[in-house]
Design goal:
Layout lengths: L5 H9 L17 E7 L3 H13 L5 E4 L15 E2 L6 H21 L10 E5 L2 H16 L5 E3 L1 H7 L13 E5 L3 E2 L2 H14 L3 E3 L4 E7 L2 E7 L2 E10 L5 H7 L7 E10 L9 E4 L4 E5 L5 E4 L14 H14 L8 E11 L6 E4 L5 E5 L9 H14 L13 H4 L5 H5 L4
Parallel strand pairs: 1-2, 1-11, 2-8, 4-13, 11-18
Antiparallel strand pairs: 3-7, 4-6, 5-6, 9-10, 10-11, 12-15, 12-16, 13-14, 14-15, 17-18
The protein binds flavin-adenine dinucleotide.
Length: about 425
């Protein structure tokens, strides 16, 4: 595989860039693997990458029904942060952010991590109080958080309208938050996993599971049967369907979540802004587009498209805060199928079926969790016991009533 470096680019340029190797090759499945991962999104690819590089298990296949990164990983709005309320979430998401901070170097692939800061806005006294409580919890969790006054927000975000219908009364900034280029995360991890010996098998759907004596022994796919010691599932919005193949019922609801971008403009916004009560978040991409999103469409769906009212609501919310963007043309819109769990936290680890592991329930916020999810899921699969950072997010917490409801606690999404 070609190493990406200044020297190599210059060398290849002399040859007219004809000798670059593909970043990974799509291969036909073997009859047997130590571990098969279902789903070639960020979580599946990161799991395979860390299995091969940290757990010493490289006889691994990732099977993906479409193309690598074609699910939510290539469709999200790229926000990364770790300013969570509960200590369990803070520890997990900060581990993930720290892995992101070094991942470009580790993968030799520029993920374009931009720690430009992530700013949550408060629009009334009650919200401001909640935000201060969240900010204190975040600081106690050892994570960076600063309260900003309206004047400080205006200085940081000159185009914002502080006197919108819901006036801006303050904000909470995580300076280490920001954005990461989502396609690059999928491509960099696929390349890294392939380079470490993992088979990446695109255009291959899981169609069934072989369960014997309460344990999984293999899978059925559109390209034939594969036997495996262990199987890890990371299929986001399709988790309920796939769990059903093993006779399991998941408390997951699948919904469409949309995002959209305007035409590109010069740099005007160098922080990622979210308003939980106006229900909108926005940032400017490296190409200059204003990226915006909001809440999920309010009905269940397996379709990678959303409804028109959601677009109208998102645009109206953006223009409340940034009236100047009203002159921009909306260029593209798309949707992903998000896997919402009852407490907005992930379900990751073992399942009631032996050797079958699940990684789902990330809902609207699992992009930031990709390196952390992959690392801890790989550890759990390899050792057959939960990694300490994900113990609290296990399958059985709903029976114990041990929910970790981040949205309810902090009022902050994405
Ligand atoms: C519009 C939008 C905006 C978002 N914004 C953010 C954000 O700003 N920050 C953030 O942290 N998170 C965000 N998210 C959430 C985030 O994108 C997801 O939580 C995360 O990408 C999930 O990764 P994944 O690998 O679990 O799933 P995916 O990337 O969806 O990968 C799952 C893969 O499984 C495959 N699959 C499904 N069924 C089968 C089968 N039967 N056989 C084989 N393969 C199968 C699918 O084709 C898919 O490629 C957003 C999501 C959307 C849709």
């Amino acid at each position: 595989m070609s190493h990406y470096s200044f020297f190599n680019i210059a060398k290849k340029a002399i040859g007219g860039h004809q000798s670059w190797q593909p970043a990974w090759r799509n291969v036909a499945p073997k009859k047997h693997y130590d571990v098969v991962i279902i789903g070639g999104g960020g979580h599946g690819l990161a799991t395979a990458y860390y299995l091969a590089t940290r757990q010493g298990i490289s006889n691994v296949a990732v099977i993906e029904k479409g193309w690598v990164g074609g699910g939510n990983t290539g469709r999200n709005t790229q926000v990364v942060r770790s300013n969570y309320f509960y200590p369990e979430s803070a520890a997990f998401y900060d581990h993930s952010l720290k892995l992101y901070e070094n991942l470009s170097h580790e993968l030799n692939f520029n993920l374009m991590l931009s720690q430009r800061g992530q700013l949550s806005l408060a629009h009334n006294e009650h919200e401001l109080e909640m935000m201060r409580r969240t900010g204190n919890a975040i600081l106690l969790n050892g994570i960076d958080a600063y309260e900003l006054s309206p004047a400080e927000i205006k200085k940081r975000v000159p185009l914002i309208n502080l006197n919108a219908r819901y006036p801006v009364m303050g904000g909470l900034l995580q300076p280490r938050g920001g954005i990461v280029r989502h396609d690059a995360v999928a491509w960099g991890l696929a390349r890294g996993a392939y380079n470490a010996g993992v088979d990446i098998i695109e255009n291959c759907s899981l169609t069934g599971m072989d369960i014997n004596d309460g344990g999984i022994t293999g899978i059925q796919t559109s390209l034939g049967s594969i036997s495996a010691e262990k199987v890890g599932v990371a299929v986001a919005g399709h988790s309920s369907e796939v769990a059903r193949m093993a006779g399991l019922q998941l408390p997951i609801t699948s919904m469409s979540l949309q995002a959209m971008v305007t035409e590109p403009i010069k740099p005007v916004l160098d922080v990622s802004v979210i308003s939980p009560s106006i229900h909108m978040y926005t940032s400017q991409s490296d190409r200059g587009e204003i990226v915006l999103g909001g809440g999920a469409d309010v009905y269940n769906s397996y379709a990678q498209r959303g409804s028109l009212p959601a677009i109208e609501n998102n645009v109206a919310a953006l223009l409340e805060l940034f009236p100047r963007f009203s002159r921009l043309k909306l260029m593209r819109q798309w949707a992903g199928v998000v896997d919402m769990s009852p407490d907005t936290s992930p379900i990751i680890g073992k399942t009631p079926v032996d050797n079958l592991f699940i990684n789902c329930g990330w809902g609207t916020g699992g992009f930031k969790a990709i390196p952390g999810g992959g690392d801890t899921f790989a550890h759990t699969i390899a050792h057959n016991k939960p990694h300490p950072l994900i113990e609290a997010f296990d399958w059985w917490r709903f029976e114990r009533g041990a929910l970790i409801d981040e949205s309810a606690a902090s009022g902050v999404a994405h």
